């Protein structure tokens, strides 16, 4: 097997069709093959590292030994194509289609409003489909955990879970008897009389609402949710028949750079290892795949060990369970669970700890393919399994290339250094033996991560103790991950605690010993060293209490009982099934007979998205001669370019050209307000990730590989990275702004109380699931057409015209739909679209650039980090008299939209509160990070967090209930804002009162206080927060919308408008308003993609006003057509719609095309003069959240969230509710979870889902209830509706303030000042250290005293 001869063809099935690939390329993944070779584009590339689930497929294989077929989900982006020999792959296209039949799994997620932008939807579909193939009636627990490897940025997850709840054994709503389906439709829902409302529970609507929930796009009806497993495709008979041959074939595949081996015996494996001593063993490719793709590692020889019996067997021996090294984590989990069912409790304690740890290890897609041996041999210092293996003393069996076997016990000597083990270079790990536990032996594992599901550990631990009958320690093992370059054992502590009795004295000594036993340098990789050290003693305290409780169960307990207030420390933060209700009303106003207005229709593309048939930019099929662009990005944050040498890259296979600033025919400078960015860096780079040049090649892989080979020499200069750096060095854009009202200084001087404070709000990555893509097509007239994933086609058009030196009318830009955007695709797509245009223009051929997730995150910017410094004056009764705030924005290396973001913060600095004296300043810091840009909410979420923190501080100072303080300062009808706008139709107080009633706030407050009085180490908090969000652009010219409506002679309607569909349901709402005006069903209406050559000069789709602007423009156009048709309808009242249109065209010769235009009256504001109207109206809302905090780890969970939102008279209630839930969860990510990490030299650490964690399914409130305010409306927007995309983000402050409330309770227990600011995101580290106690005080201040540079900085 040491030879290089290639073996038989690769044979596998995709969607029931046989695929034979001759000598496949070992570097090719299944995802690349599906999308490029088979043009099956339903499976998406979201991250490329197995962290988002967008590429989920089902893999099936038939076991000849057991004669059973097994199915498992996997990430196609990591799955090597070569690993699929003899297997069957099913993609989203293979289970159902709009052209054939829609599978119940696809139908449910679409019909239940579980798909918004839709880019993640095929992944969710395939995860659920795989679950049903294995468990046709899964349990609630299976449903709630199956999506741990899938991410969604849009929906907030609730509708996805609700969509699939009917498939479970319970088969229905988690509300049980309280479900609306079990009540009289005229009954009362949570105190709200439905009036003529339509209560929607778990995605279902009552049957008398025109079967709305059973209608798909274009009115096509889809009914039924039942799942019949007997109707599923059978496993390919060919593979079942040939399986014994295919699975026993030794394979060798030879590629350009890599050779792939698949031995089928241990002897073959050892022979390959002998001839290729540096070969890499690969099972699931979950580690190696990431190293190759993102760390640019190259492994010339890969050997897969998935077909070697000795490495894939599971055996129960006398001493424990032996797992082959290639046994997957999923198989390991199943084997241990089987043993737990059969063994007595004192014998399976070790196994139980492993099962609990595996519960939080990655997602199903990774656990299904990753091997236990890979986890050991990778030797990651934060491995979740290695601390358990060390603590239990697992035994490894190793075999050398000479066939000699030896056993090695995993102990403190096993890990020799970073990624180094005691396994010799000529040895292979054969198996691992996990021992049974014994009587009086106690074993537990602990893990703390920023996100519970699918996140790497901050610190983890395995703890084992053996006691005698008097509770004296006979043996103790304490192993920790995340405390150094290897998994470590606290050997001194282990030794010195032996012989001691398991009591308080032992605990105190253990804490003292662990402090010295586990040192951690303040500048250590990973950062948060004080927190990590505190976790070691917190974990031990939990272990101590748990063992003590176990000892209490004995007939004669040898130790004192655990205090009742301490018992909760041993219990995990448990989650049950997510439940909730969604309430809205249908307006009683007269609607057209065929109108869909105000009804909860399904998103117009939902079924296409669920079947994988919805086309995104990168799904467009390549044209003949199309080339691919790979970007050469700066590795430095600030440097002069000394030399750029592409010669090595140009010599690589498939490379066509290298492009730089010298190839730009027009201007190399671009920008929004200021032309301050270069297409290609010419002399200097000003941020890491900046584009220096680009490689043009025949494939994307060749282009990316060659781009890495371009040699760049830098003359590095000292960068300015943080706000603190900018303040110190006075690095600001000359646009510092000030707004004020009243006399702030006088008010502060007269106030009874004045407090000062500051809050840092960190960056937030957009993390749209669809990375940026642009395809450029040269046109016959010397122009350029681009398909671009952008929110602003007009901006891209103008930027490309400038780069190519073309008039605007020769540049066309189009966008059909975006897989999420959130502001990040407004201006920043120009960074890759402009190089594409330059390349396509130079070579006169189509050129495509698809950013990898790490490239996207490295260059495109984020939400602006803020530092808010405030002074707040108030009376002893709680009336806020003055608010003085300074905002420092980290704008980055270019101005982009920072001015507009700061404007939003300044005007919204009052938030929902009537404060007579306000002064707000904004300072834009110029730094060497990528230009920060627009993000959902602009600067309002940052201003909101700062204001709500200030109010929390005031409430603590006055010892006043925070809800009372907020309530007494709320705006009310007729109040005048500090920017001189009179509040009319102000429903803020109604939302506040309703959400308090809906959430039963007063009762919950008492329950929270009682819980906190009874528990020391677990605290709950509750908070209500409001939002007042203004709608409109300050720049008057942006407040305009356009639409073109065409009616065809068959009666169908095609609408083009100036907005971009990116999941927010804009197209659906446009269709609904058109159906109302024209009185035609949705089945007759379609919305076209957005194009600059159809509608010119379009405003970016942003600021939550696109439905207002383009919806009103569509109404205008439809009304024009309606007036043209009115004479015909009057003359022939009995005509059908189709007959009327035919008569209009053939008989009356009436134009059936009309353009519409709309501009809101009077909107436009000059911040410098304070003149004008900044907003047309306000959207109001309130939320109440209850949280529970583990004071020992800083972990938290959201028990419940209730939201009442004033959306006026909703155009599309289901879509608005989806926006509310999704916006709230995204706001939760900003404030509580998403930690963006940059080092002091500008190096970005968080470049993908492996390191940057957005909310997952386990982060959403366990009870999530949304009500659209009753009897609301505004006369100022289309059909009395209101914009809704951004306001719900601000309601996530209810979670932050609830955590403040819980932390306050913990600090009061310790006799501390109840208030401490929580910089956001309020990660477990920040929450834990805020809950100061005897454990944290062992380490507090160590980082500051050291004076050492932290691993990452606050931007």
UniProtKB/TrEMBL annotation:
<feature type="binding site">
    <location>
        <position position="361"/>
    </location>
    <ligand>
        <name>FAD</name>
    </ligand>
</feature>
<feature type="binding site">
    <location>
        <position position="154"/>
    </location>
    <ligand>
        <name>[2Fe-2S] cluster 2</name>
    </ligand>
</feature>
<keyword id="KW-0408">Iron</keyword>
<dbReference type="Pfam" id="PF00941">
    <property type="entry name" value="FAD_binding_5"/>
</dbReference>
<dbReference type="InterPro" id="IPR000674">
    <property type="entry name" value="Ald_Oxase/Xan_DH_a/b"/>
</dbReference>
<dbReference type="InterPro" id="IPR022407">
    <property type="entry name" value="OxRdtase_Mopterin_BS"/>
</dbReference>
<dbReference type="Pfam" id="PF00111">
    <property type="entry name" value="Fer2"/>
</dbReference>
<keyword id="KW-0411">Iron-sulfur</keyword>
<keyword id="KW-0560">Oxidoreductase</keyword>
<comment type="similarity">
    <text>Belongs to the xanthine dehydrogenase family.</text>
</comment>
<dbReference type="InterPro" id="IPR005107">
    <property type="entry name" value="CO_DH_flav_C"/>
</dbReference>
<dbReference type="InterPro" id="IPR036884">
    <property type="entry name" value="2Fe-2S-bd_dom_sf"/>
</dbReference>
<feature type="binding site">
    <location>
        <position position="826"/>
    </location>
    <ligand>
        <name>substrate</name>
    </ligand>
</feature>
<dbReference type="GO" id="GO:0043546">
    <property type="term" value="F:molybdopterin cofactor binding"/>
</dbReference>
<comment type="subunit">
    <text>Homodimer.</text>
</comment>
<feature type="compositionally biased region" description="Polar residues">
    <location>
        <begin position="212"/>
        <end position="223"/>
    </location>
</feature>
<dbReference type="GO" id="GO:0004854">
    <property type="term" value="F:xanthine dehydrogenase activity"/>
</dbReference>
<feature type="binding site">
    <location>
        <position position="47"/>
    </location>
    <ligand>
        <name>[2Fe-2S] cluster 1</name>
    </ligand>
</feature>
<dbReference type="InterPro" id="IPR036010">
    <property type="entry name" value="2Fe-2S_ferredoxin-like_sf"/>
</dbReference>
<feature type="binding site">
    <location>
        <position position="791"/>
    </location>
    <ligand>
        <name>Mo-molybdopterin</name>
    </ligand>
</feature>
<dbReference type="InterPro" id="IPR016167">
    <property type="entry name" value="FAD-bd_PCMH_sub1"/>
</dbReference>
<dbReference type="Pfam" id="PF02738">
    <property type="entry name" value="MoCoBD_1"/>
</dbReference>
<feature type="binding site">
    <location>
        <begin position="281"/>
        <end position="288"/>
    </location>
    <ligand>
        <name>FAD</name>
    </ligand>
</feature>
<keyword id="KW-0274">FAD</keyword>
<feature type="binding site">
    <location>
        <position position="384"/>
    </location>
    <ligand>
        <name>FAD</name>
    </ligand>
</feature>
<feature type="binding site">
    <location>
        <position position="55"/>
    </location>
    <ligand>
        <name>[2Fe-2S] cluster 1</name>
    </ligand>
</feature>
<dbReference type="InterPro" id="IPR012675">
    <property type="entry name" value="Beta-grasp_dom_sf"/>
</dbReference>
<dbReference type="InterPro" id="IPR016166">
    <property type="entry name" value="FAD-bd_PCMH"/>
</dbReference>
<dbReference type="Pfam" id="PF03450">
    <property type="entry name" value="CO_deh_flav_C"/>
</dbReference>
<dbReference type="InterPro" id="IPR006058">
    <property type="entry name" value="2Fe2S_fd_BS"/>
</dbReference>
<feature type="binding site">
    <location>
        <position position="52"/>
    </location>
    <ligand>
        <name>[2Fe-2S] cluster 1</name>
    </ligand>
</feature>
<dbReference type="Pfam" id="PF01315">
    <property type="entry name" value="Ald_Xan_dh_C"/>
</dbReference>
<dbReference type="GO" id="GO:0051537">
    <property type="term" value="F:2 iron, 2 sulfur cluster binding"/>
</dbReference>
<dbReference type="GO" id="GO:0005506">
    <property type="term" value="F:iron ion binding"/>
</dbReference>
<keyword id="KW-0520">NAD</keyword>
<feature type="active site" description="Proton acceptor">
    <location>
        <position position="1286"/>
    </location>
</feature>
<dbReference type="InterPro" id="IPR036683">
    <property type="entry name" value="CO_DH_flav_C_dom_sf"/>
</dbReference>
<dbReference type="InterPro" id="IPR016169">
    <property type="entry name" value="FAD-bd_PCMH_sub2"/>
</dbReference>
<dbReference type="InterPro" id="IPR002346">
    <property type="entry name" value="Mopterin_DH_FAD-bd"/>
</dbReference>
<keyword id="KW-0576">Peroxisome</keyword>
<keyword id="KW-0285">Flavoprotein</keyword>
<dbReference type="GO" id="GO:0005777">
    <property type="term" value="C:peroxisome"/>
</dbReference>
């Amino acid at each position: 097997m040491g030879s290089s001869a290639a073996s038989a063809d690769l044979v596998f099935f995709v969607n029931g069709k046989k695929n034979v690939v001759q000598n496949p390329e070992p570097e090719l993944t299944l995802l690349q093959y599906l999308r490029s070779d088979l043009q099956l584009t339903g499976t998406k590339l979201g991250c490329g590292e197995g962290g988002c689930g967008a590429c989920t497929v089902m893999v099936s294989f038939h076991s000849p030994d057991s004669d059973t077929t097994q199915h498992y989900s996997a990430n196609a982006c990591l799955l090597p194509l070569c690993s699929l020999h003899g297997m069957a792959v099913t993609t989203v296209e293979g289970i159902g289609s709009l052209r054939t039949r829609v599978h119940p799994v696809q139908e449910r997620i679409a019909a239940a409003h579980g798909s918004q932008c839709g880019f993640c939807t095929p992944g969710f579909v395939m995860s659920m489909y795989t679950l049903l193939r294995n468990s046709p009636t899964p349990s609630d627990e299976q449903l709630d955990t199956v999506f741990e490897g899938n991410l969604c940025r849009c929906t907030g997850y609730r509708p996805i879970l609700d969509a699939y709840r009917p498939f479970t054994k319970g088969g229905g709503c988690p509300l049980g008897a309280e479900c609306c389906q079990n009540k009289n439709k005229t009954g009362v829902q949570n105190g709200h009389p439905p009036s003529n409302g339509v209560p929607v529970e778990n995605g279902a609507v009552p049957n008398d609402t025109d079967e709305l929930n059973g209608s798909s796009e274009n009115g096509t009806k889809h009914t039924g949710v039942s799942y019949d497993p007997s109707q599923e495709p059978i496993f390919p008979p060919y593979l079942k028949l040939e399986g014994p041959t295919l699975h026993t074939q030794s394979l060798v595949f030879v590629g350009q750079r890599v050779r792939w081996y698949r031995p089928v015996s241990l002897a073959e494996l050892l022979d390959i290892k002998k001839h290729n001593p540096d070969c890499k063993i690969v099972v699931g490719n979950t580690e190696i795949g990431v190293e190759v793709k993102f760390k640019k590692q190259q492994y010339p020889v890969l050997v897969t060990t998935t077909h070697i019996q000795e490495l894939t067997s599971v055996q129960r021996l006398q001493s424990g369970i032996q797992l082959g090294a290639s046994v997957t984590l999923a198989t390991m989990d199943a084997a241990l669970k089987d043993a737990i069912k059969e063994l007595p409790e004192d014998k399976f304690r070790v196994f139980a700890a492993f099962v609990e740890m595996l519960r939080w290890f990655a997602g199903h897609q990774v656990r299904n393919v990753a091997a236990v041996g890979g986890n050991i041999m990778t030797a990651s210092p934060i491995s979740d399994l290695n601390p358990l293996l060390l603590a239990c003393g697992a035994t490894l069996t190793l075999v050398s290339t000479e066939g000699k076997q030896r056993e090695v016990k995993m102990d403190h000597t096993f890990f020799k250094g970073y990624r180094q083990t005691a396994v010799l270079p000529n040895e292979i790990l054969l198996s691992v033996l996990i021992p049974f536990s014994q009587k009086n032996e106690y074993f537990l594992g602990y893990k703390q991560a920023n996100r519970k599901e699918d996140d790497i550990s901050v610190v983890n631990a395995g703890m084992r103790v053996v006691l005698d009958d008097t509770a004296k320690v006979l043996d103790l093992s304490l192993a920790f991950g995340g405390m150094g370059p290897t998994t470590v054992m606290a050997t001194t502590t282990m030794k010195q605690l032996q012989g001691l009795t398991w009591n308080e004295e032992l605990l105190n000594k253990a804490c003292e010993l662990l402090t010295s036993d586990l040192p951690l340098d303040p500048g250590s990789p990973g950062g948060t060293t004080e927190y990590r050290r505190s976790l070691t003693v917190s974990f031990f305290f939990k272990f101590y209490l748990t063992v003590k409780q176990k000892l209490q169960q004995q007939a004669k307990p040898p130790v004192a009982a655990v205090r009742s207030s301490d018992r909760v420390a041993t219990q995990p933060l448990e989650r049950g099934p997510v439940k909730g209700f969604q309430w809205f009303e249908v307006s009683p106003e007269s609607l057209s007979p065929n109108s869909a207005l105000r009804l909860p229709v399904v998103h117009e593309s939902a079924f296409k998205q669920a079947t994988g048939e919805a086309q995104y930019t990168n799904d467009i099929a390549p044209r003949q001669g199309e080339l691919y662009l790979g970007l050469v990005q700066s590795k430095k944050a600030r440097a002069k370019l000394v030399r750029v040498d592409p010669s090595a890259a140009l010599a690589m296979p498939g490379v066509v050209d290298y492009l730089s600033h010298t190839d730009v025919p027009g201007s190399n400078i671009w920008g929004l307000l200021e032309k301050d960015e270069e297409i290609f860096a010419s002399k200097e780079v000003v941020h890491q990730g900046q584009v220096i040049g680009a490689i043009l090649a025949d494939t994307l892989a060749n282009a990316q590989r060659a781009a890495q080979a371009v040699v760049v020499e830098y003359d590095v200069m000292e960068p300015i990275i943080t706000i603190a750096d900018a303040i110190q060095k006075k690095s600001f854009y000359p646009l510092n702004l000030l707004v004020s009202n009243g006399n702030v200084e006088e008010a502060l001087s007269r106030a009874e109380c004045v407090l000062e404070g500051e809050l840092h709000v960190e960056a937030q990555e957009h993390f749209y699931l669809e990375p940026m893509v642009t395809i450029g097509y040269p046109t016959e007239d010397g122009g350029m057409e681009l398909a671009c994933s952008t929110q602003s086609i007009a901006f891209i058009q103008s930027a490309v015209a400038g780069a190519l030196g073309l008039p605007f009318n020769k540049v066309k830009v189009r966008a059909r739909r975006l897989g999420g955007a959130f502001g990040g695709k407004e201006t920043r797509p120009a960074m890759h679209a402009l190089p594409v245009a330059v390349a396509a223009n130079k070579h006169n051929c189509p050129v495509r650039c698809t950013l990898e997730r790490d490239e996207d995150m490295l260059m495109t910017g984020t939400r602006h980090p803020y530092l808010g410094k405030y002074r707040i004056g108030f009376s002893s009764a709680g009336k806020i008299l003055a608010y003085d705030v300074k905002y420092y924005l980290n704008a980055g290396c270019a101005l982009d939209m920072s001015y507009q973001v700061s404007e939003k913060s300044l005007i919204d600095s009052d938030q929902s509160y009537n404060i007579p004296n306000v002064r707000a300043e904004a300072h834009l810091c110029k730094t060497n990070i990528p230009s920060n840009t627009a993000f959902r909410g602009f600067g309002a979420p940052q201003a909101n967090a700062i204001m709500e923190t200030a109010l929390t501080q005031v409430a603590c100072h006055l010892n006043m209930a925070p809800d009372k303080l907020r309530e007494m300062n709320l705006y009310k009808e007729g109040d005048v804002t500090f920017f001189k706008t009179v509040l009319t139709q102000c429903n803020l107080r109604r939302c506040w009162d309703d959400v308090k009633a809906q959430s039963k706030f007063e009762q919950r407050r008492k329950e929270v206080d009682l819980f906190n009085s009874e528990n020391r180490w677990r605290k709950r908090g509750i908070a209500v927060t409001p939002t007042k969000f203004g709608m409109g652009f300050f720049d008057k010219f942006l407040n305009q919308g356009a639409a073109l409506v065409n009616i065809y002679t068959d009666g169908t309607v095609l609408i083009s408008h100036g907005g971009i569909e990116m999941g927010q349901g804009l197209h659906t709402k446009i269709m609904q308003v058109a159906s109302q005006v024209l009185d035609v069903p949705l089945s007759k209406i379609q919305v076209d993609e957005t194009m600059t050559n159809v509608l010119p000069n379009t405003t970016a789709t942003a600021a939550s006003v696109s439905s207002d602007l383009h919806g009103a423009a569509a109404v205008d156009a439809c009304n024009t057509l309606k007036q043209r048709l009115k004479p015909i309808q009057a003359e022939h009242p009995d005509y059908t719609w189709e007959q009327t249109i035919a008569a209009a065209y053939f008989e009356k010769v009436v134009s059936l095309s009309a353009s519409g235009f709309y501009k809101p009256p009077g909107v436009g504001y000059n911040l410098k003069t304070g003149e004008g109207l900044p907003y047309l109206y306000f959207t109001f809302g309130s939320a109440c959240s209850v949280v529970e905090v583990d004071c020992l780890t800083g972990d938290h969970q959201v028990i419940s969230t209730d939201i009442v939102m004033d959306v006026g008279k909703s155009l599309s209630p289901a879509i608005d509710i989806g926006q509310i839930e999704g916006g709230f969860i995204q706001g939760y990510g900003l404030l509580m979870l998403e930690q963006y990490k940059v080092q002091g030299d500008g190096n970005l650490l968080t470049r993908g889902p492996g390191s940057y964690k957005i909310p997952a399914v386990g982060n959403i409130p366990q009870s999530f209830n949304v009500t659209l305010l009753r009897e609301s409306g505004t006369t100022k927007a289309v059909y009395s509706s209101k914009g809704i995309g951004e306001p719900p983000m601000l309601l996530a402050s209810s979670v932050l303030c609830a955590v403040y409330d819980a932390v306050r309770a913990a600090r009061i227990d310790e006799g501390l000042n109840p208030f401490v600011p929580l910089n956001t995101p309020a990660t477990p580290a920040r929450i834990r250290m805020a809950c100061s106690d005897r454990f944290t005080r062992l380490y507090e201040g160590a980082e500051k005293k050291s004076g050492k540079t932290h691993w990452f900085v606050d931007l």
